[in-house]
């Protein structure tokens, strides 16, 4: 008897596989190397394969799907409640197989190599942004210890630090000047790398037809469009626009008991990077609310009149997500102000 569902707990070198029958009986329980797992994909009859979403899951999922298997990538928070007894690799694999058998369980869609490449650019750029911010704060802090204050922001640091290095009368020691020059050089290299990756994303957005459609939406630029398309493709895995908003974490959090519904702040679940980009785009659009007269900006002004700006910006970000879903899923040509105001 062959297992109809395989749960695979993945690692760097070893993979724990548990196979269940249609009645839930354990038929397979093995610890495999990466090469042995690849052979299992190629030789095992087509079945459902459940893998926990983590680093390397997309690659294994594409490999298994190429051999005809039905791959389901399950988020870790959905697997944890099904782990019985103590936590170990085989129990994790068993829980994955049991979760995959539930008809209501949602899975993460497989992404193409092109989507993974674009996501890698976004992740590298985000890491460089964090590094640049850390170096900026460190340089300002070190100078403040010497009685030299630099205003916040990138431009003051870019222009003021070279002048400080040239000033021989500011009391800085030769050792500190050498250290400061090295930190400034590292800061400039990081800044140039960020600009290079940003230009690369802009070029990718120009070459992608879905990204060009998304950029017709006010508040959606190259960063938001490429990040969204690389994450969800054509949005076919989301039945409604609200499903996409919920996945990004921009819908209200519910706390309902005794039949009395209560809505709180946004859930902040799902993709935090996309949520941050959409909120930043909404804030940029918020600045122009009083300077343009179209259905969308009139709707924004109506929000400003009845709620706190922070809440209104989140509501605007939610609307931008819903409009983006419509342009991707329905393949609408360009953004339509009148239709957007009604969503």
Describe the structure using short key phrases.
alpha/beta; Nucleotidyltransferase, domain 5; globular; 343 residues; single chain; 14 helices
Structure write-up:
The structure is a single chain. With 343 residues, the chain is an alpha/beta fold. The chain has helices at 34-43, 57-66, 76-79, 89-100, 113-145, 154-166, 174-207, 209-214, 222-232, 241-248, 272-286, 295-306, 309-329, 337-342; strands at residues 5-9, 14-20, 26-33, 48-52, 70-74, 252-254, 263-266. The protein contains 14 helices and seven strands. The termini are far apart. Helix 10 crosses helix 13. The chain folds into three domains: 5-100, Nucleotidyltransferase, domain 5 (2-Layer Sandwich), CATH 3.30.420.40; 113-207; 209-342, no CATH class. The model has no long low-confidence stretch (mean pLDDT 89). Strand 2 and strand 3 (26-33) form a beta hairpin. The strands form two sheets. Strands 3-2-1-4-5 form a five-stranded mixed beta sheet.
